Each structure stands twice: as C-alpha cells, then as structure tokens.
Amino acid sequence: MAIITDEYFKERHSKLKEYTMVLLKPTERTKEKGIESLIMEHARNNMALQEDGLLSIVCPVSGNYDISGLYIFNVPLDEVRKIMDGDPAVAAGIFQYDIYPCKGFSGDTLA
Asked: How remote is the C-alpha of 69 from its chain's centroid?
C-alpha cells in the first residue's frame, strides 16, 4: 500500500471540489408493465446530461435493491434538484431520489 505523507495529504485535500450526489430509488411504479419507454427516455436524458458536461458519473444498479442508481453531478445542489425533477421517470413517479452535497477530486475516473 502507498505511503501518504502529511504534505501529500494536505496538497491533495486542498484540491477537493464540490459535487452533488444523487441516489435514485425505485417506487412501486418501477414494477409496472409498460414503463419501458419512460425508462428509455430517462436513460436518454442521462446521456444528454453527460454530453452536456453536467453529469460526471452514472452508475445504474440492477436487481431488486432499494437503490436504482448513483449519480455524481458537477453542478450545485439546487440546479441538480431542478434537473432531477425534470427527469421523465422521476416526473412519472417511477423513481424518486435523495440528493446530497459531496466533495471529490476533479479528474477522478472509474477504472
């Protein structure tokens, strides 16, 4: 394991950036038949947000869990709330969400 000196830690820590994390949650509507087109529009919306540079990370969660996805936005919390309220599947009551301010290192990526 790498050794992290106090100097290195302080230098990295000084580069933390503000982000907004969203936990997407299923509702009872998620189990309904015939919602596939709304889910597709939801996914298309996510891709557009990524292309526009607003949404940095999208992690869908498959299976029977209490969470349907994790998002990391690089815009302020109030703007993310407006974005999420306009999501087709959220507006239709298929998903709900919790939103949190968080910090991360700019340039972090998924391997």
From this structure: 7
Residue pLDDT tens, the chain, 111 long: 999 999 999 999 999 999 999 999 999 999 899 999 999 999 999 999 999 999 999 999 998 899 999 999 999 999 999 999 999 999 999 999 999 999 998 788 887
Query: Three-state SS across the chain?
Result: CCCCCHHHHHHHHCCEEEEEEEEEEECHHHHCCCCHHHHHHHHHHHHHHHHCCCEEEEEECCCCCCCCEEEEECCCHHHHHHHHHCCHHHHCCCEEEEEEEEEEECCCCCC
CATH ID of 16-105, from 1.10.357.10, 3.90.550.10, 3.30.70.1060, 3.40.50.720: 3.30.70.1060
- Give this prediction's pTM: 0.90
